Amino acid sequence: MPSCELCGKPVLEKKMITVDGTVFSVCLGCAKHGKPYNPAPLSARKKAPAPAKKIAMRDETMLDPEFPRLIREARMKKGLSHEQLGMQMNEKAALLRRFETGVLKPDEIFARKLERHLGIKLYIAADDAKKSE
Ligand SMILES: [Zn+2]
Questions:
Q1: Of 21 and 117, more confident
Q2: Mean pLDDT value across residues 106-125
Q3: Residue 96 forms part of a structural domain
Q4: Cα–Cα distance measured from residue 78 to residue 76, given in angstroms and rounded to the nearest whole number
Q5: Which of 33, 38, 79, 94 would suit a FRET pair with 106, their CA atoms being 20 to 30 Å apart?
Q6: Binning pLDDT at 50, 70 and 90, where does residue 112 land?
Q7: Would you say residue 56 has pLDDT above 60?
Q8: pLDDT exceeds 80 at position 20
Q9: 7 alpha carbon – ligand 1 mean position (Å)
Q10: Domain co-membership, 84 together with 28
């Protein structure tokens, strides 16, 4: 007598189930632990694979490598010191100094904040950056 592949008990009425994609022949009691196994009809398997569409990553952006100069110039134009801009943005002036010297790279949240406060664009399309190289 065949035994259940899950609990090992002898099986009177064998049931085919799938558990995580693996087919088991099990007893009635274990059958409820998996999905009923229905071999797909051949016609359904012949389905041609959908052509992989290449989606152009048009909105891929990167931090402008010129960000230290952009931040500095925009801040100067507004006549703000690091401290004043830092106060407006509720950020540390020391951080702004580091960004302007290029020692530190602002993360996206900070960069977006700078864009808003200074009215500048710090993100450029990655494509454009490659072209200008
Ligand atoms: Zn069983």
A1: 117
A2: 94
A3: yes
A4: 5
A5: 79
A6: very high
A7: no
A8: yes
A9: 4
A10: no
Closest CA to 30 of 52, 14, 41: 14
Boundaries of domain holding 86: 61-131
CA of 15 to the centre of ligand 1 (A): 9
pLDDT for residue 67 is more than 60: yes
Cα 14 to averaged position of ligand 1 atoms, centre (Å) = 9
DSSP codes joined into one string, the chain: --B-TTT--B-SS-EEEEETTEEEEE-HHHHTTSEEP-PPPHHHHTPPPPPPP----TT-EEE-TTHHHHHHHHHHHTT--HHHHHHHHTS-HHHHHHHHHTSS---HHHHHHHHHHHT---EEEHHHHHHT-
Q: Indicate the number of domains in the chain.
A: 2
Residue-level pLDDT at 61: 84
- One domain, residues 75 and 123: yes
CA 10 / ligand 1 centre spacing (Å): 8
Residues near ligand 1 ion, CB 5 Å cutoff = 4, 6-7, 26-27, 30
